[in-house]
């Protein structure tokens, strides 16, 4: 029997009372919590330089500004996937650069290799690989194709902390790497972004961007703390139904915007991020286990296709993405939500169909058909630590009821 007051959030990471109390205590008694967190990240993923900023999207903007400065402003295009988070093109535009779209393969959500083979290094400053939903992009191929043309690579692992390609952590393959500690990520401190690099030159350019950023004010720290307390309390499925029932909160909606601030990281949030980061292996292992079980339970067939990770990839599975026939996609999402599962149709359109970008986009030859197909078919299922075996069985049963029932008609 379904619990009317249980609703599984679409994304997030559980934060315990012990995490809250320990983090607040550490923030009050220690002045170097941020440095400890930085060092933990740097050592864990094996990079020489690591800088923290206010958000992941701010991090991507600042990374592009740093690369633009190194380039001397000669090149002005940034290649991004035709289907990805809206924060990616917004970061490009905020950095004063132009978006060039390269199509994606719906089966992998990664670039179509032939689209990158045509890149013009005289115009393109950087390629951004976005590792969507925690599925690592084919970074070995992307970096080889880009570097052969003198193009920078940004390994945007905002959604892929804990993922790997060929044994190497996502976020460490490019000239610059990005992580995010936003609310829906595998490790959260409510907000926060990380820039990573092994290049002395790139590190100096990033440092010049970061050192002039405004510091976090006490009022902002108080706001972050309040959000942290609410987040920890309301993420539980027995509480999430309440914020989920309030449409003015806009939960699960995605909008294109460039009016976000570029600022320094809130050091008061470092202890909670550091505590969760120390449990990254366990957090990621649970997400992978949840994804593996969904893979076994879901009714694969002509109306439902998997999204497949690369052969050498170890996903982090921020969410579990599947592709559903567009005639039934919205019905599946609605049915899952009616049964207390925070499924999502994810980003509502391909990047080429974002109205605010209609006059600012350039496309590689071959168009963006793959990205638009993904936008019509994608559904993501929750994988976080509050997902139970019963929840997974319910997801599979609901999807089967909609899709298998349709096939039998």
Oligomer: single chain
CA-based shape: globular
The total of helices stands at 14
Helicity level: 40-55%
How many E strands? Answer: 16
Could you tell me how far the N terminus lies from the C terminus, measured between alpha carbons in angstroms? 27 Å
Major sheet: arrangement of strands: 1-11-10-7-6-2-3-15
Low-confidence stretches: none
Largest sheet: 8 strands, mixed
Structural class: alpha/beta
Describe this structure in words.
This protein is α/β, with parallel strands linked by helices and 409 residues long. It has 14 helices and 16 strands. The strands form four sheets. An eight-stranded mixed β-sheet has the order 1-11-10-7-6-2-3-15, with helices on both faces. The protein has a three-stranded antiparallel β-sheet with strand order 9-8-13, with no helix packed on it. A hairpin with a 4-residue loop joins strand 4 and strand 5. Helix 3 crosses helix 7 and helix 12 crosses helix 14. The chain is globular and about 60 Å long. The protein starts with 16 loop residues before the first helix and ends with a helix. The model has no long low-confidence stretch (mean pLDDT 94).
């Amino acid at each position: 029997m379904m619990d009317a007051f249980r609703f599984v959030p679409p994304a997030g990471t559980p934060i315990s009372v012990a995490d809250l109390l320990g983090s607040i205590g550490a923030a009050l008694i220690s002045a170097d919590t941020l440095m400890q967190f930085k060092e933990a990240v740097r050592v864990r993923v094996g990079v020489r330089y690591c800088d923290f900023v206010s958000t992941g999207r701010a991090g991507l903007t600042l990374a592009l500004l740093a690369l633009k400065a190194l380039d001397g402003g000669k090149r002005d295009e940034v290649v991004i996937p035709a289907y990805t988070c809206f924060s990616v093109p917004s970061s490009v535009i905020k950095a004063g650069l132009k978006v060039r779209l390269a199509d994606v393969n719906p089966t992998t959500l990664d670039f179509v290799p032939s689209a990158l083979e045509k890149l013009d290094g005289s115009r393109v400053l950087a390629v951004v690989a976005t590792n969507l939903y925690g599925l690592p992009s084919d970074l070995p191929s992307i970096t080889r194709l880009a570097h052969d043309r003198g193009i920078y690579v940004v390994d945007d692992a905002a959604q892929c902390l804990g993922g790997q390609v060929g044994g190497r952590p996502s976020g460490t393959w490019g000239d610059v790497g990005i992580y995010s500690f936003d609310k829906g990520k595998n490790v959260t401190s409510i907000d926060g972004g990380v820039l990573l690099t092994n290049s002395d030159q790139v590190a100096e350019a990033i440092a010049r961007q970061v050192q002039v950023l405004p510091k976090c004010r006490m009022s902002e720290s108080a706001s972050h703390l309040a959000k942290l307390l609410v987040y920890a309390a309301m993420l539980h499925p027995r509480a999430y139904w309440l914020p989920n029932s309030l449409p003015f909160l806009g939960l699960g909606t995605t909008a294109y915007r460039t009016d976000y601030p570029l600022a320094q990281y809130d050091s008061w949030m470092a202890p909670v991020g550091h505590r969760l980061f120390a449990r990254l292996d366990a957090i990621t292992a649970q997400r992978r286990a949840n994804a593996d079980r969904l893979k076994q339970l879901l009714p694969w067939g002509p109306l439902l296709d998997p999204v497949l990770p690369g052969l050498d990839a170890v996903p982090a599975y921020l969410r579990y993405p599947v592709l559903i026939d567009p005639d039934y996609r919205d019905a599946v999402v609605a049915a899952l939500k009616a049964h207390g599962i925070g499924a999502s149709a994810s980003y509502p359109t391909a990047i080429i169909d974002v109205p605010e970008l209609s006059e600012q986009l350039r496309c590689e030859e071959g168009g963006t058909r793959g990205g638009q197909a993904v936008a019509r078919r994608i559904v993501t299922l929750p994988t976080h630590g509050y997902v139970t075996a019963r929840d997974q069985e319910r997801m599979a049963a609901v999807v089967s009821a909609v899709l298998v029932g349709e096939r039998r008609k």
